[in-house]
Amino acid sequence: MANLSVNICGVEFKNPVISASGTYGFGREFNELYDIGLIGGISTKGLTLEPRLGNPVPRIAESRGVILNAVGLQNPGVEHFIKNDLEWLKSTGTRIIANVAGKTLDDYKNICARLDGLVDMIELNISCPNVKSGGMAFGIKPQSVEEVTAVAKSGLKKTPLIIKLSPNVESIAVNAKSAENGGADCISLINTLTGMTIDIERRRPIIANNTGGVSGAGVKPIAVRMVYEASQAVKIPVIGMGGITCAEDAIEFLMAGATAVQVGTANFTNPYAMPQIIDGLNAWCDSHGVKNVSELTGTLQLNGK
Amino acid sequence: MKDYLVTVVKNEKIAENIHAITFLLKEECKVRCGQFGNIAVGGTHLLRRPIAICKVDGREVTFCYQVKGDGTKRLQAMETGDTCNLLMPLGNGFFVEDTEQKVALVGGGVGVFPLISVLRKYGQSKEISAYIGYRNQNAVCGVEEFAKAHKFVGVTDDGSYGEKMNAVQAFEKDLKAGNRPDVVLACGPTPMLRALKVLVEKENLTCFVSLEERMGCGIGACVVCVCDLTNGKKARVCKDGPVFNAKEVVL
């Protein structure tokens, strides 16, 4: 039995496997399949100050090896989460990362202030490709990444802040550094890549929103490269995600520089993906003489160096 | 709800473009009529295929599906002895109250298969009339099951089998003839359900409809497959449905 625990910004996770926002709700449904206390943490469905109804359907489509989604941040609002889900989530024993989004800078500050001290970490979604106002707009330009990070951070006294970075940018390294400069305690990446898929009989995009965020196994090499570049650019911890399906995928991210990983789309393909990845990590560490999974972080050596 | 590793017992064509696949489970699984399963078709498909459960016989579960895209083509290509993962049972399903004796089933297209599960559950205890619409005679299927109902009216869009009308028209015709049910259970294409909703509201009948939508997780976590409710809220088709009271959903 390897020690799978990791420490991110002073928060102890029993293992480095966290559910990715938007694929796992608030954990209740997956808890019908297995005890979600087994997983390292949960990044909640993206929360906003007010409830949101999200985009029209269809909200999802497939392409080989990937999926596209455009849910558009449908959520019951932060107050509903605090009242109905928070205590229950705490009782499961998993770590709680509240994923939050806003339309304005004030929204980001206010929602962070509301959740400060109530959850283990806050993950700022500044990279949702599926809503017209806010979200993505803050995540593209390095200056605005730094600004929204600083504003959100000003609403926080206790809870560490994760900035979730968009891959749809000029330089992931520059944006990672901007988040760090703005006061981020941690970064997570990648959010989804903007894509489109077309129903050729109707000559229309399948998703009602026309474009959607691409995720799943097919995006993994892009994500690994970006996690490597981002982790080289910053000193703060990195949470890696993008197409992780099995323990070996997770290990790639750790070696590329991530302290922990998030698993999203794989939960749809295989509802037991997360506990299986945790078991697989343990087995891999044991068979490779790794006593602490945290030893793997950033151990990648580039060819020719 | 459980993810079962299942083995294909048989996979055969039952009508034009419609196939029935039967899986063997390792154990018996308690299923309500109108529930569905999420079938992993493998290959490069990351999403499973949510399909209504048509029949359960001990450890054997049968799904009927229309071959439409790459995913259902993969399903069609599965052979006896092949294995795959199947998450089931999902969704709420149909439920008939003790006070409801006369039940009308209104179905069209692939929507007829969850109604077969209703007939198998309530066929003995309730007086069931089935009004089933098909595109044409080549699409006719499930007749051996529907024939067990108290009354079966099969119709087609082109009149090549039964009368030339749709399932809602067949139901309305019988309704006007005095055959008024205590509850209507329906599944089929949205235009059909929409027409039915207008009719049942005019006639003040209780009606439950089973909806279909593109799904992500199939268990209620990802809020991909939502429908609009008349109270302005959204509901998850996979978890809050797929069966809804017709008066509570916007079609």
Notable characteristics:
heterodimer, A: 305 residues, alpha/beta, TIM Barrel, eight-stranded parallel barrel, 16 strands, B: 251 residues, Elongation Factor Tu (Ef-tu), domain 3, Rossmann fold, 2 domains, six-stranded mixed sheet, 5 helices
Could you report the average pLDDT of chain A, rounded to the nearest whole number?
96
Low-confidence stretches of chain A: none
- Helical content of chain B, roughly? 10-25%
Low-confidence stretches of chain B: none
The radius of gyration of chain B is: 17 Å
CATH architecture of chain A: Alpha-Beta Barrel
Give the CATH architecture of the largest domain in chain B.
Answer: 3-Layer(aba) Sandwich
CATH fold category name of the largest domain in chain B? Rossmann fold
Number of helices of chain B: 5
CATH fold naming of chain A: TIM Barrel
Widest beta sheet: strand line-up of chain B:
1-2-5-4-3-6
Order of helices and strands of chain A: EEEHEEEHHEHEHHEHEEEEEHEHEHH
Greatest interface:
A-B, 35 and 30 residues
**Helix-strand category of chain A:** alpha/beta
CA distance, first residue to last residue of chain B: 28 Å
Give the name of the CATH superfamily of chain A: Aldolase class I
Distance between the termini of chain A: 33 Å
The biggest beta sheet of chain A is recorded as: 8 strands, parallel, barrel
Return the CATH class of the largest domain in chain B. Alpha Beta
Order of helices and strands of chain B: EEEEEHEEHEHEHEHEEEE
**Biggest β-sheet description of chain B:** 6 strands, antiparallel, barrel
